[in-house]
Design brief:
- The chain is an all-alpha fold.
- It has four helices and no strands.
- The longest helix has about 50 residues.
- It starts with 14 loop residues before the first helix and ends in a 48-residue tail after the last helix.
């Protein structure tokens, strides 16, 4: 799961190696959390869809709608063999079945979009933190260390000199799998002189 906390890493006592390692570790943990949430949501979808199909089949049976009931049975048999959203057919009738399948396809795609957005957000926050560290090191005259940070940023496919995409981003939407609650954010004091600020990380 993504750790939603505002962190402040003190430069004194850690050194640049420790700070960089902590930045990267936090970033990797965030990515792992995004992937875990993605898998949990995707894996939960087929069972819920099969249950919904059974309920709809029973509804058609109670209504005496043989064609509707048979259509649901056919889709349920197909679905258990291939529950991918791309494999779900687009129907016009029966209306209730068509609506159920369309909802599934939409949600299946939305989960992937949520994952991609969360990964992009984590990457941007990681880069923003590295840029702040690069500035601090440069101001301190630690040019070799600043160059190493710059190389790390460039290895992510982003220009090290570019301005951050956002300076004060809003809280990121929770991406943990339901019903797990999102961890609450903790406060952190502003970094004093000689400290490396790590605020707004995973908010």
């Amino acid at each position: 799961m993504i750790i939603a906390a505002v962190l402040a890493l003190v430069w004194q006592g850690y050194g640049q190696e420790g700070v960089l390692d902590k930045y990267e570790t936090q970033f990797r943990k965030g990515l792992e959390g995004v992937e875990t949430a993605f898998r949990e949501k995707r894996l939960a979808m087929p069972a819920a869809q099969v249950q919904a199909l059974r309920q709809l089949e029973a509804q058609y049976q109670r209504a005496g709608d043989l064609q509707g009931m048979l259509a649901v049975q056919q889709e349920r048999k197909r679905f258990v063999l291939d529950p991918r959203g791309s494999a779900v057919p687009v129907l016009q009738a029966p209306v209730e079945l068509a609506r159920l399948l369309a909802t599934y396809k939409t949600r299946f795609a939305e989960i992937a979009v949520e994952r991609d957005r969360s990964r992009a957000d984590l990457k941007q926050r990681y880069v923003d933190a590295l840029r702040k560290l690069q500035v601090t090191l440069t101001q301190k005259g630690n040019i070799q260390d600043a160059k190493r940070v710059m190389q790390m940023i460039e290895s992510l496919g982003i220009a090290a000199s570019a301005e951050p995409a956002f300076r004060d981003p809003p809280p990121a939407a929770p991406v943990v799998a339901e019903p797990s609650p999102e961890p609450s954010s903790g406060g952190a004091e502003p970094a004093e002189s000689g400290e490396v600020s790590f605020d707004k990380w995973f908010e």
